[in-house]
Specification:
With 156 residues, the protein is of the alpha+beta class. The protein has helices at residues 21-31, 63-73, 92-101, 139-142, and strands at residues 36-37, 50-51, 84-88, 106-112, 117-123, 129-135. The chain has a 4-stranded mixed β-sheet with strand order 3-6-5-4, with helices on one face. A two-stranded antiparallel ribbon has the order 1-2.
Length: 156
Amino acid sequence: MTLPQTHPPRQLRLIIETDDFDEAVRFYRDVLGMPEQPAFATTGDDRVSILHAGTATIELATRAHVRAIDAIENAATLDGPTLRIALEVADTDHAVAVSEESGSEVLARPTETPFRTINARVQGPAGWQVTFFQELETLEQRQTHEGFETDDQRAR
């Protein structure tokens, strides 16, 4: 049984468990400017912060695709799967500058990709890498380029 397309999930919530809650909140809320919404917690060390990140998507990728993106972004390839968040921003250069000023390690400087974005990567809190991407074309424009198709349309 599957959910019908008329009733897909309405929200993606990525839960990042962290030992340094204050640093994670500082980075995502205060440095990146993600608005916080009220959330339930009890007392003491039971803390939670739900931050709005705009539209959410799930990107499923094979190891070969991840390695290709690493090469395009000029980022080091790590052994095994990594935890990575990709955030669309209005200005990749600015997002990297703000992150770097706040003490984040820059893993890959801004670079224009063949898929018409400007990507960069920083090391975020709790072991998560954060990719910033700035769209240079609309989805409609990108779909006219070779290689932009859904998986079921792609020749294997």
